[in-house]
Amino acid sequence: MEYELNRDQIPAHVAIIMDGNGRWAKAKGLPRTAGHVEGVERAKQITEEATRLGVKFLTLYTFSTENWNRPDAEIEAIFNLLVTGLEDEVFMKNNVRFRVIGDFDRLPLSVQKRTRECMDKTAGNTGTTMVVAISYSSRWELTQTMQKMARQATEGKLKPEEITEDYISSQLQTAFMPDPDLLIRTGGEYRISNYLLWQCAYTEFYYCDTYWPDFHEEDLRKAIADFQHRQRRYGKTGEQVEKNEN
Question: Which of 159, 161, 224, 238 is the most exposed place for a label (fewest CB within 10 A)?
Answer without folding.
Answer: 161
